[in-house]
Structures are given as structure tokens and as C-alpha cells.
Amino acid sequence: MRTHVCRGVRGFTLTELLVVIAVIAVVAAILFPVLQSVRHKAWESVCSGNLHQLSLAVEMYLQDNDETFPVSYVATGTEPYASWREAAQPYVRNRSVLTCPAWEHRGPKADELPTELQATYALNAWLSPPDLTAMGGGRGEPVTVASVHSPAATIMLCDAGYSNVPVALDLDHYLALGMQEQVLPTERHHEAANFAFMDGHVKRMPEAATRSPEYLWDLQ
Known about the structure:
This protein is α+β, with helices and mostly antiparallel strands. It is built from 2 helices and 7 strands, in the order αββαβββββ. The strands form 2 sheets. A 5-stranded mixed β-sheet has the order 5-3-4-6-7, with helices on one face. Helix 1 packs across helix 2 (84-92).
């Protein structure tokens, strides 16, 4: 009569388990930066599309308003605020395009602003200086398209931090309008920002590249 001997199934030893865990940790450490890079690249692409849509909306506004830019920002000291964002809305009909998906760079004011003011893009202040008369400041006049001599080398819109001031200046001139708070281009895409130009193209570049070797903000 044959006797069957039941052999126990051998399990993992502690050493083997630790080796497996270590291998998984190494693989995760290798893949995580890759996945992060892919995610940021997707955000950058969406952001670029947002700026393209907004630039088209501003272009349509220009066609309907004697080729004159909307007032970039009317500082009233109270809500509601008037800005180019509201002027562009009838042409884009989608407030989600006002927000870059790179949420980790929203800025300190993100949670303070009501929904209608939450946006991460700003208009070049050289094209349309803000109206600060209600706060004791000056008022600039929006320019016309004819004033822009080099559309392909003039910034219209840019990545910016969350703020209730939807108008941007370059780093060298952010105090030129005497504003207490001034939005600057925000480098939230791998140490660079997206910029929409007057001719409709969108380009990613560091903020410093908008000032040198060629100055891309004023009416060239």
C-alpha cells in the first residue's frame, strides 16, 4: 500500500520578501519621474490649447470693436471686476479655458477668489493698461491692432498666477504702472511658461527669454 506524504508549500522567507519590496521600490522610483513628466507634458499641452482659444476669442473681439483691445482690468476696489476675460467670454463661452491644469502652481490667492475670478492667464499690459482711477491711479488707453508692428514677436497673453489682477507685465517693468500687486508670467511648465502671440501662435519659453535677446512685450 502506497503512502502519500503531504509536503507543506514553502512560503517566502523574510529576506526574499524584503528583496521583492526593494525591487518594487526601485522600479517605482524609476517610473515615478517619467509618469510625472508625462503628466506635466499633458498639462502643458492643455494650457497651450487654452491660450490658443483665448487668443482667438480676443481676435474676434478686436474684429467687432474697431480693432481696439478691451480694457484689461478696471480696479473698482469692490466686486464685480471688469476685465478682458469678461470681454472674451462671449466668443469662447467656456470659463474652463481660463485655468491652466497645473494646479500645484495656483498661487496663494487661489482659495480666496470667487469662481468667476479664478483664472491663470493674463493680458499683456502694454496692449491695454489697466484703469486704476477708482484707486487713485492712472488710466491707460487700450491700443489698436495697427499699433502692433510685429505680431509674431509681440506677446498677447501668458501663463500667470491666480490673482484678481488679470493683466501682466514682464519682470523688468512690473512696477511701471504703480500697482501694488502685479501679475508676472508664471513658469509652471518645467521652468517655463506658455505665451500666446499676436499672430496666434503659442510658444513655451522661460520668462527671461521674453526680455532678451529680443523684447517681446511692447509694441514693436
